[in-house]
Amino acid sequence: MTTYEPVIGLEVHAELETHSKMFCGCAVVDSTTAAPNTVVCPVCLGMPGMLPVINKQAIEFAMRVGLALNCEITPINQFARKSYFYPDLPKGYQISQYALPLAIKGWLEIDLPGGTTKRIGIRRAHLEEDTGKSTHIGSTSLMDFNRSGVPLLEIVSEPELRSPEEAEAYARKLRAILQYLGVNSGDMSKGVLRFEANISVRPTGSTEFRTRTEVKNLNSIRSMARASEFEIKRQGVAYDRGESIKQATMGWDEVRQSTVVQRIKENEDDYRYFPEPDLPIVEIKREWVEQVRVHLPELPDAKRDRLMAIGLSRYDASVLVAESAISHYFEATVAHGVDPKQVANWIINNLFKLMNKSGLEREDVSLTRVTPEAFADLIKLVDSGTINSNTAKTVFEALYNEGGNPAAIVAARGLAQVSDEGLIREKVQAILDANPTEVARFAAGEEKVAKLLMGQVMREVGKGGNPQVIQKVLTEALNARKT
Q: Which domains does the chain have, with CATH numbers?
């Protein structure tokens, strides 16, 4: 059986969080909560004779993204008409960019397992307008045009991704950059960020580009990875059967976990691109580009390097900066005076576990009941010896589920660590008196017996016992019985 190598390129559509739409003065609103068709005008409804006007802020937001993706910002931009007929596009065409896009020839570096990295080319990033939103109820379709005309940035990668894992790493990195730039929330559940995977497979070792399919309807990055994996297997099986692959737009069925054909894919000629006659050429001067570049915020890679400089491993730093909400939460916790490495360990090993269990995505960290201040106070309780690390996990889970103050939870549940040396010495002496054989073995040089005795003392003291204090008292008592 032939082994196949996937060839994946991603098209990403990101709504830009400008104040108004791309070509009119209507406000950009949350299309999932605003009353349908309440933020529309003749321009975004596609009424005949209406004239569009370019949104300058959208151009600047797009430039931010292009610069963050190491692209060339082209000095001459031109909008074009892309003709296709669908109910959510009232004009019968979309105003987009084609021959002269805003940003070209960029790249994005992704982290791979094993500590390696890979640079993925960015072919282009161009501006266009979003379409309306369709809601299908039985045999009826309802149209909401609040989203129609919202600035949309399409970012097209080169077909250089070679696995669903690489595609997921690219998607997460790009999403984080958009969030850090403040141009897009990254909330895929609301459709403000949409990934489309162009997928083909070829015999391993081949350099040919075979017919690709485009997978849509992806409402999360995880769905994108699963859909890519399914489509790769489907195409491989088809080739093994001697079948051909048709260029098509595929949908992802989340329930059946499979791709389904939506329509045979149009070619560029079918869109009949031509320069938009109602909009002028856009000239972008170098001074404007440099002004935008100077005001770019700290981006994920720079923040990762900064966190590494304060002692975090590359892995931990990369995980924390991959989601802007998590990175802000991490820094807000550290700001309360606790060790960054401890905070990182707690987030990665404990917080993420609880969030996964309760079905929260990492961007939803603000929905948890563990405030940065409470988080820091918990770590301080461990550092001060008030509670041990095992008890801290219990308190952390209580904070996650109920909120509140960690010290109050410790007091209410009687979880304070037992560090009273007098009490512990009594327990140790009792255990040693009850185990003369083990004491004699220790005195004879069999030091591993101390671990067995340590376990007995810990059980006697209870789970609140301070292991450091118990270890100290036990060692002193055992050494005293050697003589």
A: 4-291 (no CATH), 298-405 (no CATH), 421-480 (1.10.10)
